[in-house]
Amino acid sequence: MLQRKEWSGDYGDVKQIGRTYSKDGIRWLSLSGSGIEFHCETELVEIAFVSDSSVHGQNGTDYARFAMYINEELVFCDTLKEKQKIVKIFESRIKQEIKVRILKISEAPHSMIGIEKIILHSDLPSKKTEDLAHKIEFIGDSITCGYGVDAENELVHFTTSTENVTKAYAYLTAKELNSDYSMVSYSGYGIVSGYTESDKKDTIQIVPKYYQSVARCFGTYKDMPLLENVPWDFSKYIPELIVINLGTNDNTYCKDKKERHEEYRDEYVKFLKVVREKNRDATILCTLGLMGANLYPMVEEAVTLYQKETKDDNIVTFRLTEQDKADGYGADWHPSKVTHQKAATQLTEKIKKIMGWQI
After folding, report:
1. pTM of the model
2. 289 and 209 both lie in a single domain
3. Per the structure, how many domains does the chain have?
4. Where is the signal peptide (predicted)?
5. What are 310-333's pLDDT values in tens digits?
6. Domain boundary among 128, 163, 193
């Protein structure tokens, strides 16, 4: 048997997936789909995790959900309920060359998960996997997060245990396009207002406020700063394409009020300028419609106004087909697995056309 060796969770020779944050040897995953991936030659793989403050409360709906893969095969999926946990995900009598992927599949605000150690029975360290053919960033809300996609039906309410970004349209689209991805998505968030059941605007749950941060997460760990106060280094991931899918939650505030539609449009233009400032060369694709397209005309107007003002023509719009009740629903009437797959197929074809990508 080969000698047991340990590497810190923030070991550098791994591929970072999405936005991650490292402190004191721990790599923290917060945003949906964030994680790491590496190759190794080993007889055993164990991963040591630490949890954030979400495990100290009594609210079991907030635990971080995570998944692990060996050679593309899902081998572990659960929520982290313990303060510390070591998970064995691979064991063999002989040394094998394998690919390991670790993903957080629930969203950022509720909790984060820390990779404390990578443990191998190997005489060699892990090595990062290669980049895929393309790079996409997805900016969105609960739809992008895969909210409730693993729930039995629409009568089930939110819990991180039924959230799964790997079954959502964005992840599926990236997979179909052989593309790396980064997700910046938060359930209930919008451009001008977050989800509201009153007539009052929610100015806290808006994506533009946190886009330039690593993430927005309420979880804490010792003296680690809140991730919303940590600026994201945009040089770490340079996408060729950015997909923005925001407006479903804004619609709960805007309704059919013309002045609110225009407010959404104007704030959308402002956000486009920020996205472009941070991503000079990326094509921007603005989409809406999976859970309703009431604000889609404002998306089109926003893009037109932005283009007129900036002379930037590297931006397009695309309307997704609204979900069909015949395809079922996830928790709280969110898209089902079938709906997400249909949306991914639609979006994939659109991206192939505008980007000229041959898959």
Report:
1. 0.97
2. yes
3. 2
4. none
5. 999 999 999 999 999 999 999 999
6. 128
